[in-house]
Amino acid sequence: QSMDSTLHYIHNDSDLSTNSSFSPEEERKSKVQDVVPQALLDQYLSMTDPSRAQTVDTEIAKHCAYSLPGVALTLGRQNWHCLKDTYETLASDMQWKVRRTLAFSIHELAVILGDQLTAGDLVPVFNGFLKDLDEVRIGVLKHLHDFLKLLHVDKRREYLYQLQEFLVTDNSRNWRFRAELAEQLILLLDLYSARDIYDYLRPIAFSLCADKVSSVRWISYKLVSEMVKKLYMASTPTFVVDLMNELVEKFCRCHKWSGRQTFVFICQVKCLFICILGVWG
């Protein structure tokens, strides 16, 4: 009877996101499921104990973090409560390699868990990764679009204020970080409105166009051209006109040859010529 009542609790979707305080016995029951042998799951959960990682194998926590999305997929979102504490333990592990592993897979876990659990349990972890070391931040940056597209529109807009922080890295010579940011911004154009693009993404794009590393600048040229195309297709023409005027002032009329060359490179994209003809023609 005790087992039946426990399983009934586990499969009740309305209780998935509750954070009640359990007694030790209730805590044990909360991790009971009927998908895989319970002893197997208990063994996996015990491997994330920090004391065990110090005495048995220092890499064990990293392996557990690598396997966690697969375990979550096997158990299903109805049994996420069995893994929630373990995930939070790994997300706060002192080894950055463990946190980095979770950062690279958090978007996959969000697909498995769905909107409600992602907003309640993964978003706080995601926010922590954004403030972590560059080795961890690159994990969320590489899949930034994949994660943000799963969030509600209002929640997604909150991250517009934090995109600027990706321009700052622990090592300024880490140009691949900025190149990845430019790649992700191209994908993010489809997730935000014309006003959001103009107010928040445009300043970042112009900053990347003036980067010291040519590889970053080349990706940024594509970003700006895609931005022009996106604003041109918007219902309000004001944004694209202002953007085109800014391009002319910053680059076309720049007193440095490198700035004028930047304008030429941006204009290599065919869609930008079409926009110029449409706006000024």
Task: Furnish the topology, listing elements before pairings.
Blueprint: H1 2-10, H2 24-30, H3 38-46, H4 50-55, H5 60-75, H6 84-91, H7 96-113, H8 115-130, H9 134-142, H10 144-148, H11 153-157, H12 175-188, H13 194-209, H14 214-232, H15 238-252, H16 257-266, H17 270-280
Task: Give a verbal description of the structure.
This protein has helices at residues 2-10, 24-30, 38-46, 50-55, 60-75, 84-91, 96-113, 115-130, 134-142, 144-148, 153-157, 175-188, 194-209, 214-232, 238-252, 257-266, 270-280. By secondary structure, it is mainly alpha-helical. It has two domains: 34-151, Alpha Horseshoe (Leucine-rich Repeat Variant); 182-280. The longest helix has 19 residues, at 214-232. The radius of gyration is 24 Å and the shape is elongated. The model is unreliable at 1-22 (pLDDT under 50).
Low-confidence parts: 1-22
Looking at the overall shape, the CATH architecture of the largest domain is: Alpha Horseshoe
Mean pLDDT, to the nearest integer, reads: 83
Beta-strand percent range: under 5%
The CATH superfamily of the largest domain is identified as: Leucine-rich Repeat Variant
Can you count the beta strands? 0
Rg, rounded, reads 24 Å
Give the fraction of residues assigned to helices.
Answer: 55-70%
